[in-house]
Design brief:
two-stranded antiparallel sheet, homodimer, alpha/beta, Rossmann fold
Chain lengths: 228, 228
Amino acid sequence: MKIAVLGTGTVGRTLAAAFSRLGHEVVLGTRDPAETAGRTSPDPMGGPPFKEWHAGHGHIRLDTFAAAAGDCELVVNATNGAASLAALGAAGAARLAGKVLMDVSNPLDFSQGMPPVLNPVNTESLGERIQRAFPETRVVKTLNTMNAGLMVDPRRLADADHSVFVSGDDAEAKKIVTGLLESLGHRDVIDLGDITTARGAEMVLPLWLRLFGALGTPDFNFKIVRRG
Amino acid sequence: MKIAVLGTGTVGRTLAAAFSRLGHEVVLGTRDPAETAGRTSPDPMGGPPFKEWHAGHGHIRLDTFAAAAGDCELVVNATNGAASLAALGAAGAARLAGKVLMDVSNPLDFSQGMPPVLNPVNTESLGERIQRAFPETRVVKTLNTMNAGLMVDPRRLADADHSVFVSGDDAEAKKIVTGLLESLGHRDVIDLGDITTARGAEMVLPLWLRLFGALGTPDFNFKIVRRG
């Protein structure tokens, strides 16, 4: 499949590399490709500078949000939550129309210090905002509840005996995303329901952040233990 | 131990009966014992009328919030989140001073329809509000992330291979609560940190509610899968 991953941070890079390894044709979308390609300072999350990372992943093309989104079958939103609507706006509603959009972002707000808070919450979610802003796009919220390493290699922890959620209004889009997740090794994909259920998946982040603090590692995940 | 369980809904009844079975001396606290004792209509959550339940649990005394809290070593707040501060106020700061308060409530707000929203969120939690209102009480937030049946009998699901969280400022209080949880069968008690981490444990409720919808049963729990 031709996949556009929007966002060049740790999550975007990790997903792009993993989809590429699985044989997909992957393009990374960014606001200003020349600026991103030239970056020699470390990533804000501590990853290597983009230039250094890209040197080892030259087969993954870097392009503008618009060009990346125009030339693909499935789009992944891996931009940071505060910038997602702007990035998708730059990609363009017409280019996103009809496509499946895998939204893995979290609406974290760092403006009030650490730990970040979530915005929106309760009666709204970033997943829904994206769906509403791009009504012809088939948004599926997923993967936002775990770290990037586990997103693409769930088997590295407990042989993938943990859970991932999907939320979205389009059953066929959730099926396509579920297939992609399974190809990465996810064994327990739970369909929470329509896109409003993204409120639940997003609001788990504050617990994730406290667990990160308490356990001293981001290498954990939620498993929904149930019968059957 | 002498335990006062404040709140006579499903959660309060279930915890009171379980602690009593474990050999503790349990008193249930309510606003108006005569009114509660006389209730012949079903509980709002679908449980039997209090009168009927109490007929089978006559060894569990029913008293006012104040009398129950005064005559115990540990207090459980199992009142509904919207009423918790008032109930604890009726119990009285002096009677709660120095005691361990196990807070299992959730600040669910049903005023905007279903599903309920959480209030407060993000920079505040009900656990913290209680701790701030009763600074001499040793508040431990716990058990709010699962249904009442699993709170008291975790082994009924996957031999208790799932997790429960504790949040609180007082290490000794968390140790006492952890001991009680283990006596109920909990095998994985995760100390999230100080009482502000209750924000994380409370904000998982929206996901719990969507999982309840998606799975069609409240009989599930979160397991934090990690190494070691």
